[in-house]
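Supplementary Text 2. Reproducibility record for the structural model of the 73-residue chain.

All settings were left at their defaults, and a single model was retained for analysis rather than an ensemble. We include the record here because the model underlies the residue-level annotations in Supplementary Table 4.
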Amino acid sequence: MSLPQPKNPLHGVTLEMILNHLVQQHGWEYMCERVRINCFYENPSISSSLKFLRKTQWARKKVEDLYLESIQE
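Retained model, structure tokens:
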């Protein structure tokens, strides 16, 4: 059973939901500028980005931070 996390803004938000939000709000070009990874630059897609971000913790952290910035605006 998971514990409630009322102060964690990422609780209950999947990586796919984060990517979809960022792409809709900012677009791939902006995301590529902010987080320099090839899956945002060459033939960007949600599925390729998910595969990479699930394996690469530093990139996932940058994407999560970008998401947190975007929801605080």
